[in-house]
């Protein structure tokens, strides 16, 4: 039975042909679901709103949850740099984003680390890169727009 479940998980990770980037609403839903699965403290949430991701177990597990639910990370196969590139290309060339993702994955290999530690390291690397800066700018602009509408 365990072997069957493992094979099923691998097949789910591999069937990438129909993967599409998540919309802002889908990401919002994913984040909410992950907050239910991995509750964070108000302090942790405030740090993350400022793009400061503390290296704490709950934050790492939350990042892993969102990465898995977005289908950009698979617990059996690891990262999908091609999907990261499609999801977060912003105004960059997809190939440039894929290279940044590949570089971060190579810089922080899985080795014997727990998945959440590996996800955290690669996430931090990506957020420190050009693509991370573009994501931060996009999120800040979106937050400003939403606050103007309120």
UniProtKB/TrEMBL annotation:
<keyword id="KW-0732">Signal</keyword>
<dbReference type="Pfam" id="PF01395">
    <property type="entry name" value="PBP_GOBP"/>
</dbReference>
<comment type="similarity">
    <text>Belongs to the PBP/GOBP family.</text>
</comment>
<dbReference type="GO" id="GO:0005615">
    <property type="term" value="C:extracellular space"/>
</dbReference>
<dbReference type="InterPro" id="IPR006170">
    <property type="entry name" value="PBP/GOBP"/>
</dbReference>
<feature type="signal peptide">
    <location>
        <begin position="1"/>
        <end position="16"/>
    </location>
</feature>
<dbReference type="GO" id="GO:0005549">
    <property type="term" value="F:odorant binding"/>
</dbReference>
<dbReference type="GO" id="GO:0007608">
    <property type="term" value="P:sensory perception of smell"/>
</dbReference>
<keyword id="KW-0964">Secreted</keyword>
<dbReference type="InterPro" id="IPR036728">
    <property type="entry name" value="PBP_GOBP_sf"/>
</dbReference>
<protein>
    <submittedName>
        <fullName>Uncharacterized protein LOC101896552</fullName>
    </submittedName>
</protein>
